[in-house]
Design goal:
single chain; about 200 residues; alpha/beta; Helicase, Ruva Protein, domain 3; Dna Topoisomerase Vi A Subunit, Chain: A, domain 2; five-stranded mixed β-sheet
Length: about 200
């Protein structure tokens, strides 16, 4: 209660708490703890943190091919000559690319949707990078699309939607095997489980 009272009378602190509270997974108490931690932090560290945030916003862009986050366009994966351009792995978020890359199982390229279809949250297929995926497949040169959306309700719905729009194009469609825990996220899966999910991926009819 004391922190709340102080924050209510010190506008910069109240603003900082409010901005932290807007971040995903940060509740009011956590926002207050982060704000007061920053207050105790040496000024040099606080400035370094602020500079890192500004640099990310100024220098990070989306790859024009796969839409992963990058500081060069195209990204290093899309530009790499040793990656197989005929296989594209579709994931929901950039963090999923990192998780898959740790397994060293997949040597193709990616397509990042930046979310999943979720009517309850107001996220429609047109809000994602699905049209761009369709355009990539139509352009030719892709033999297999691996649907690596998260093994939960919205991930399955997204995979099903993509399957429906890509099937008429004649590309091979596969889905990661169910070694992944239902309801989980790819970014939290261990490397062995992810590797097996890739090795045992299933064709979609």
């Amino acid at each position: 209660m004391q922190h709340q009272t102080i924050a209510a009378t010190v506008e910069p602190v109240a603003r900082l708490i409010d901005e932290f509270h807007k971040l995903p997974g940060i509740g009011p108490k956590s926002a207050q703890r982060l704000a007061y931690y920053l207050l105790r932090m040496p000024e040099s560290q606080a400035r370094a943190l602020a500079d890192a945030i500004i640099e990310v916003k100024e220098k990070i862009v989306y790859c024009s091919i796969c839409f992963n986050i990058t500081d060069v366009d195209p990204c290093r994966i899309c530009a790499a000559e040793d990656r197989d351009p005929t296989r594209v792995c579709v994931v929901e978020e950039p963090l999923d690319v990192l998780a898959i890359e740790k397994t060293r199982e997949f040597r193709g390229r990616y397509h990042v949707l930046h979310g999943a279809v979720s009517p309850l949250e107001g996220i429609r297929p047109e809000d994602l990078r699905i049209d761009e995926l369709v355009a990539r497949v139509r352009a030719g040169g892709i033999d297999e699309v691996i649907l690596a959306t998260n093994p939960n309700q919205v991930g399955d719905a997204t995979a099903y939607y993509i399957q429906r729009v890509l099937q008429p194009l004649g590309v091979r469609l596969t889905r990661l095997a169910r070694g992944l825990p239902m309801g989980g996220d790819l970014e939290y899966a261990d490397e062995v489980t992810l590797s097996r999910a890739f090795a045992n991926r299933q064709a979609l009819s």
